Predict the structure of 1-acyl-sn-glycerol-3-phosphate acyltransferase delta.
Amino acid sequence: MLLEWWSGTECTMYTDPKSLPYYGKENAIIVLNHKFEIDFLCGWSLAERFGILGNCKVLAKKELAYVPIIGWMWYFVEMIFCTRKWEQDRQTVAKSLLRLREYPENYLFLIHCEGTRFTEKKHQISMQVAQAKGLPSLKHHLLPRTRGFAITVKCLRDVVPAVYDCTLNFRNNENPTLLGVLNGKKYHADFYIRRIPMEDIPEEEEKCSAWLHKLYQEKDAFQEEYYRTGVFSETPWVPPRRPWALVNWLFWASLLLYPFFRFLVSMASSGSSVTLASLVLVFCVASMGVRWMIGVTEIDKGSAYGNIDNRQKQTD
């Protein structure tokens, strides 16, 4: 609701028209670049416009499970969390993915193969790793972590018919933030989406890893073309905005906020200095909590994963 109705952010798809009938009508693994603070919101917006938002799943870092309200919600709707340590994730992630095989409705499963958001510092370190491994350098992406993708494809191959390669960018060099969305700032997102049949992806882990590296080289070329021309190469299309996110928000706001504000007015009019001080304290704590949750999405306050300052050894 905040992205589509409050800030009015526009999301344009660039895709092969032959793929449109499949979107929202099948299970799919989403491979999305991880460079912007609101990339997940833009993904949710497209999922909502295809009527499949309620069935979206994601492979996310375990720390997000402890974020109040949002993290708890993700836990109860069966999001898959990982520690980003392969020795610990090998069995737990596979077990969660195998449960997903029995999910009764169509779903989208999002995975950020880069493992963390793009920053110049992380990019420099990532390309040093690429050079050491003899892999081509990437200009607009980090080196993908292949094991998570390989195990996802292995566990879901028989029930997921396609991988959607999604490359996101914003017009006019916009630098979107969640705080900007909350302030009502409008952004213009462009999504380049390719539907890749699952049978085109190798089954062997080593070949699957090589395939993913090649995919990211292609994604890098798409981004380079976008920065040069301002558009992606496929046919642009804007999915129609549906009213249900707004209707849902208005319903719960009417149900919960009206009695809440009546309670606040009653407390404020009581005249008790202790009551008023308690009310101010609650508002300060709530404001700090919201600001902290927003900070989780900010790039400059992101995790140390992928930084050389992170003393844990990062292996592919």
Q: What stands out?
A: Residues 119 and 299 are 8 Å apart (CA to CA). Confidence is low (pLDDT under 50) at residues 309-316. The chain is about 45% helix and 15% strand.
